[in-house]
Amino acid sequence: MSRIGFVTSLSWLSNCVRRIPENQSSEVTFILLGFSEYPDLQVPLFLIFLIIYTITVVGNLGMIVIIRMNPKLHTPMYFFLSHLSFVDFCYSTAVTPKLLENLFVKDRTISFTGCIMQFSFACTFVETETFMLAVMAYDRFVAVCNPLLYTVTMSQKLCSLLVGASYFWSTVCSLTCTSYLLTLTFSGTNFMNNFFCEYATIIAISRSDPYLGQMIAFVLTTLNEIGTLVIILTSYVFIFVTVMKMPSRGGRYKAFSTCASHLTSITIFHGTILFLYGVPNSTNSWLLVKVASLLYTVVIPMLNPLIYSLRNKVVKETIRKLIHTKLLCYKL
């Protein structure tokens, strides 16, 4: 279901971009300023982001491979985690390579079509992560509060449905915003005070009235954030109440430890998103916006596989076995 929706959205986006008037797509140029105001930091930033992106790719793709290889990890929780890793890899890849290119070369231009495509993909996968974290909170709620019915409740059919719905609604949100951006009017060379084509940045440099676009962003962001946070908070309230009723300290510790990694991811991701959209619109706030955007598009995709692997004995044991196997093959 998610693959069909993704292919459909890609086809729709390609058709929309092809229908853009030629004078709009060929004459308009965007220049991503990024961190160009700090020329002495270009090389250090390039090296730092290259290391972060390498860890992101290896960590997330490695997590997917580990989950596929180990039968002990063929459970609903790790099924959702594999999709979270896929989403992290995708939206980091939509943003970070262009960031690295702009730090390495002086020409920081990006075409109108390339900008729209970058935003559309990044928006789709960031929104998907928002819903995936909510789905994982529900999964933890069932595991802790109804452990005897966990395997029955979290069936393969329900898990696939929850993941497919997350991809579908995220695609709808992305295509809604992308459709609006395609109606905006631009002219000549436009300087974007960001390191990637972020929604508010694109609207800020257009010659069109931004009111409708701002309302679309406000409605979708509010709806998605409130909806997912309600699911997450409600799930963890029930989890907390259930855990506190457990008679043994060991049982409480085990229950909390299974939720610790997920709670850490939620806090970092939603905290960044809420901060980003809570920053007032002013010239002085652009640096904060760029730093917050950098955190959720570049840094968080690197942190998630580390958070989930460092606290998980099964994952660490699988990694050790893989390394041991590779070393034996190398010696032979």
Describe the structure.
By secondary structure, this protein is mostly helical. 78% of the residues lie in helices and 3% in strands. It contains twelve helices and three strands; from the N terminus they run H-H-E-H-H-E-H-H-H-E-H-H-H-H-H. Helix 4 (76-104) crosses helix 11 and helix 5 (112-145) runs antiparallel to helix 10 (249-278). It starts with a helix and ends with a helix. The model has no long low-confidence stretch (mean pLDDT 85).
Keywords:
single chain; 332 residues; mainly alpha; three-stranded mixed beta sheet; 12 helices; 3% strand; globular
Summarize the structure.
The protein is mainly alpha-helical.
- Describe the strand arrangement of the main beta sheet, using strand numbers: 2-1-3
Strand content: under 5%
Largest sheet: 3 strands, mixed
Give the SSE order as H and E letters.
HHEHHEHHHEHHHHH
Helical fraction equals: over 70%
Question: Secondary structure elements and their pairing?
Answer:
Blueprint: H1 2-18, H2 22-27, E1 29-32, H3 42-69, H4 76-104, E2 109-111, H5 112-145, H6 150-153, H7 156-181, E3 189-192, H8 199-204, H9 211-244, H10 249-278, H11 286-310, H12 313-331
Parallel strand pairs: 1-3
Antiparallel strand pairs: 1-2
Helix pairs in contact: 1-7, 3-4, 3-11, 4-5, 4-11, 5-7, 5-9, 5-10, 7-9, 9-10, 10-11
